[in-house]
Amino acid sequence: MASRIISKRGNNKGRHVSIQSLPTDLLAEVVATVASQSFLDLHNVKISCKDFLQATNHNYNYVLQKVSLDNFPLIQWFPNEKALTFLRRCEESENIEILFREGLREYFNYPNGNIGGLERLQIAAQRGHKEAMYVYGMLLLSSENHESRKQGIEHMRSLRMSKCIMSSRKKVQHLTKFLWKNNGMLVRNQIPLCKFKETCKGWRVKKGRWLLLDDEDDDIQLCEDCRWDHELEFFYQLFNIR
Ligand SMILES: [Zn+2]
Asked: FRET pair for 32, CA 20 to 30 Å: which of 64, 79, 192, 199?
């Protein structure tokens, strides 16, 4: 890859900007953003250009803090030393995905879940991890405690505003395939969030017509409580809760 980029701002002919002229911090930020999408892309960007490689090496902890672990299974059934070393380094760098995964495994551990897992999920959610926000938000929504449910709505609302409900749900759905179900930590809350469930013409009418397939289909004009009642149904199904 040529170590230069083209800037067209204010000039239709284009202006070459060399990558070497950019500060290392900026390059590291680019690498960290790429890494947050995919571990394989991190590998590719490192071998594509020596400036990116150097920026990665100089800011390795920061990059590991952000790197996506989508290519690594939730549970290392057949761990190899290389993968374990990498994951250990990610953990030492306070990788947010590791925190989320630990929280998930702990909370839904079988046969006895650990409430400490909820704390890890909360920290990961507060640090902006989307799937952690989804799981933590849904766990709060399923709580019997009124205040917790209100907090759950706040978490889910911010995720909804960034149009990340469906993508987060899909990733969580994938991860739950590797978890044992019914350890008693998640229990169905029989009281719907929408107090007018029987008469509310919002979400109940809409969901009968079509399934929500992506975040663009999500209509924020409709009753918000019904929206989360609908999401809770899906969440319970993920964990075989009837
Ligand atoms: Zn409603």
From this structure: 79
